[in-house]
């Protein structure tokens, strides 16, 4: 077993602290920035969030393939963390900049900068997530590393969500557009420093064999031919999610039925006749733990994303003091760090699967209780929110740890390990869930007539905010708990698979 030194775990955690200057900031404040400062309607911003998820579906998979086939003296994944950082910092600033343009011009600018931000995030975070899978072969060490990672993530989120409103007020001095832009200058500088720390302090110890008989160019060309596998399901889900009418429902059923038939056909093809991309896809489609984790990743991100995407609105209008939102975020993220660091302890006693189910149910129940909180009762808001967050913080920690387990399972079962592809799908469903969560917040608010530039619409939208803080997100938590009951890998099986893989790799080295 490769036990990771403490400094390396901390160094790895700095990468997610940096990423969450973007991720938590965009998730928590980009929606309210678009509607209340930038000037987009809630409906237009919702469609923006959904459309960008379509580009993510392609770029995440491509990045996973590229990272798996990267070969440098620094490893496969670490170089991408360094190379992508300047672009991530740049688009972070541009996304929160308000140029003097017409409404159409602003809408185009928002699409370009937000898509640029998600692509830069993909270039950075897909390799970063996959790095955890090659730093150690031990599933218990990965659980510990994941705890450090998400403690770092929540610390980065703490800086953004806890202090962004005050920093915007300080730098803007009454002008929120200027305040957001200058605040992002500060966060971008911090991001660069933290990413460099991650690059210099981590090490890749597992070097899976990659089939180099086929060039990356031909693999990408093959992927382009199979884009319908990615684009059409996403498009059908997006249309059904946004329009929710009979026509989008019929299109969704047709597309998903066609995809099911194509997948059945693919699984019957002789493996020798398949391209590398098709073999990778087949390995994933027959990897039951990975498939279940994709669903879990989406549902948990919807659960957390809806809550976080509503907080800025909730405190601004339901509580009546938007600056208290920063203090609430600080409280949540302090508890989140404790929850993430506690995951290793509880998973050793309950097992990852059981702990995931318990955390989903308890966090969901505590979230539902928000529905009965009297307006402005800060004590109840903070107690319920922090209690629910302690268990919610375990979810992403467990999710990315278990993705590593599914990568081990794929290598054990098929003799091939596409770590980058497996983790890219994981980051993709996380981002998809976050995008859909942000869009759902805006769709619900738009349904209640909310217009951030028209204060007369606020009162009628308050019941929608109440639902978005309670029943709506909790529904996704309960669905995730039900799905996790079907997850097949136990702690004992993970240990057996890990031991057998170590033995196989040792035999290959001796040969």
From TrEMBL:
SUPFAM superfamilies: MFS general substrate transporter. One of its GO terms (biological process) is carbohydrate transport. The keyword Nucleotide-binding does not apply. The chain crosses the membrane at residues 38-56, 77-96, 108-126, 147-170, 182-202, 223-240, 246-263, 284-303, 323-343, 355-374, 380-400, 421-448, 468-487. CDD domains: MFS_MelB_like. The keyword Membrane applies. InterPro entries: MFS_2 (IPR039672), MFS_dom (IPR020846), MFS_trans_sf (IPR036259), Na/Gal_symport (IPR001927). PANTHER family: MAJOR FACILITATOR SUPERFAMILY (MFS) PROFILE DOMAIN-CONTAINING PROTEIN, MAJOR FACILITATOR SUPERFAMILY DOMAIN-CONTAINING PROTEIN. NCBIfam families: gph. Belongs to the sodium:galactoside symporter (TC 2.A.2) family. This is Sugar (Glycoside-Pentoside-Hexuronide) transporter.
């Amino acid at each position: 077993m490769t036990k990771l030194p403490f400094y390396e775990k901390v160094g790895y955690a700095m990468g997610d602290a940096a990423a969450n200057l973007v991720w938590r900031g965009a998730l928590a404040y980009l929606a309210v920035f678009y509607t209340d400062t930038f000037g987009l309607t809630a409906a237009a911003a919702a469609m923006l969030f959904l459309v960008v998820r379509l580009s993510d579906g392609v770029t995440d998979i491509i990045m996973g393939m590229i990272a798996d086939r990267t070969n440098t003296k620094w490893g496969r994944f670490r170089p991408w963390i360094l190379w992508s950082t300047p672009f991530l910092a740049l688009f972070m600033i541009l996304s929160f900049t308000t140029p003097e343009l017409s409404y159409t011009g602003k809408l185009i600018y928002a699409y370009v900068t937000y898509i640029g931000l998600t692509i830069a995030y993909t270039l950075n975070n897909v390799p970063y997530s996959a790095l955890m899978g090659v730093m150690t072969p031990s599933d218990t060490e990965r659980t510990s590393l994941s705890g450090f990672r998400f403690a770092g993530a929540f610390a980065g989120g703490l800086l953004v969500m806890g202090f962004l409103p005050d920093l915007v007020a300080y730098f803007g001095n009454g002008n929120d557009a200027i305040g957001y832009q200058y605040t992002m200058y500060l966060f971008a500088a911090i991001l660069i420093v933290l990413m460099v720390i991650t690059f210099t302090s981590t090490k890749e110890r597992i070097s899976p064999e990659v089939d180099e008989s086929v060039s990356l160019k031909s693999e990408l060309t093959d992927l382009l031919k199979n884009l319908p596998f990615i684009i059409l399901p996403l498009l059908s889900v997006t249309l059904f999610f946004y329009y929710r009418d009979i026509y989008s429902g019929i299109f969704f059923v047709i597309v998903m039925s066609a995809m099911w038939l194509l997948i059945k056909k693919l699984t019957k093809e002789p493996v020798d006749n398949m391209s590398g991309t098709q073999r990778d896809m087949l390995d994933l489609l027959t990897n039951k733990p990975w498939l279940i984790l994709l669903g879990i990743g989406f549902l948990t991100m919807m659960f957390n994303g809806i809550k976080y995407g509503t907080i800025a609105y909730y405190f601004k209008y339901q509580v009546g003091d938007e600056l208290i939102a920063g203090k609430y975020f600080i409280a949540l993220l302090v508890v989140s760090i404790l929850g993430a660091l506690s995951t290793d302890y509880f998973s050793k006693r309950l097992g990852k699967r059981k702990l995931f189910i318990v955390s989903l149910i308890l966090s969901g129940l505590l979230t539902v209780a928000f529905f009965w909180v009297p307006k402005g009762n800060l004590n109840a808001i903070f107690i319920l929110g922090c209690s629910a967050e302690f268990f919610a913080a375990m979810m992403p920690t467990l999710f990315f740890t278990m993705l590593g387990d599914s990568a081990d399972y794929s290598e054990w079962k098929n003799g091939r390990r596409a770590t980058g592809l497996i983790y890219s799908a994981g980051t993709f469903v996380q981002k998809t869930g976050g995008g859909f969560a942000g869009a759902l917040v805006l769709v619900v608010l738009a349904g209640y007539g909310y217009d951030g530039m028209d204060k007369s619409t606020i009162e009628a939208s308050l019941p929608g905010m109440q639902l978005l803080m309670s029943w709506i997100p909790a529904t996704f938590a309960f669905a995730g708990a039900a799905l996790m009951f079907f997850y097949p890998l136990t702690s004992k099986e993970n240990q057996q698979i890990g031991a057998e893989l170590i033995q196989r790799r040792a035999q290959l080295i001796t040969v």
